[in-house]
Specification:
This protein is of the alpha/beta class. It has two domains: 128 residues, D-Maltodextrin-Binding Protein, domain 2, CATH 3.40.190; 94 residues, D-Maltodextrin-Binding Protein, domain 2. A three-stranded parallel beta sheet has the order 4-1-5, sandwiched between helices. It has a three-stranded antiparallel beta sheet with strand order 10-7-11, with helices on both faces. It has a two-stranded antiparallel ribbon with strand order 2-3. The N terminus is likely disordered.
Length: 264
């Protein structure tokens, strides 16, 4: 009987040791870059409603500068790309929760965001402009926004910039809704990306709107979760390679009409 009990105890200890050994291996924490490469897939999130950066073409295909940029970065990492669309306010929440690997959607740098994310090197440089109705000459400089009504996606850098000049910002879902409010006279102005304004005007040439002034010079970055230094380094290397081999310039000329990938 004692021999049987000893044998059982020995077997239990063996199983425990095997389980612990397997648990250690399974419990090893991979960094984000290792996980992406192990999965063979980079999950890139964007809105899908903001031309020319991320939008749907006439065939309902997701296209745009940032969409192609995501695919190019995935290729540099040696993995496939999977695109996910979400509303602006959900993009960062999904990044925080690990549902997405990267958000590539014309993201600007702010000190508040920098508390939560590390930012890649900038990949484009462009003007942020104040847009008004074509018959409205009240705004000639950003400071004239003080007391004016504007519309933007809440938590966007454009909303923050408008508020910094004293504007009263109405939250909207996308650029089209913003322009509708402006054309209808329900807001005085909007602060937005000049390339997005130009793209909207190309699609709506009769829209009675114009650029009143430049609000500031801006850059777009790719946010990476804090602590993922390997992923940040890989993204920066990919951006550097794409700039050097001319891919960034080609994407800019294709979607933005000129090369906006350098500070000049």
């Amino acid at each position: 009987m004692k021999k049987v009990i000893a044998l059982v105890l020995a077997l239990v200890m063996c199983f425990a040791l095997v389980a612990c050994s397997n648990g250690d291996k399974e419990g090893e924490t991979k960094n984000q870059l290792e996980t992406v490469k192990a999965n063979g897939k980079l999950i890139v999130a964007s809105e899908g409603v903001w031309a020319p950066w991320t939008y749907h073409d006439e065939n309902n295909e997701l296209v745009g500068f940032d969409v192609e940029l995501g695919g190019c970065i995935a290729k540099k990492l040696g993995v496939d790309v999977e695109y996910v669309e979400a509303e602006w306010d959900g993009l960062f929440g999904g990044l925080d929760a690990g549902r997405y690997d990267l958000v590539i959607n014309g993201v600007g740098y702010t000190e508040d965001r920098a508390k939560t994310y590390d930012f890649s090197d900038p990949y484009v440089f462009l003007d942020t402009v104040v847009v008004v109705r074509e018959d409205d000459d009240r705004i000639t400089k950003p400071e004239d926004l003080n007391g004016m009504s504007t519309a933007n996606t809440i938590s966007s850098t454009y909303a923050e910039l408008a508020e910094s000049y004293g504007a009263n910002v109405t939250g909207v879902d996308d650029l089209n809704q913003t322009m509708e409010l402006l054309i209808q006279g329900r807001i005085d102005a909007t602060v937005n990306d000049e390339t997005a304004f130009n793209d909207y005007l190309r699609a709506n040439p009769d829209a009675p709107i114009k650029i009143a002034c430049v609000a500031n010079r801006d850059s777009y970055y790719i946010p990476v979760r804090k602590g993922e230094s390997e992923m940040l380094a890989a993204v920066n290397q990919a951006i550097a390679d794409l700039r050097e081999d001319g891919t960034l310039k080609a994407l800019s000329e294709k979607y933005l009409g000129s090369d906006m990938t350098t500070e000049e």
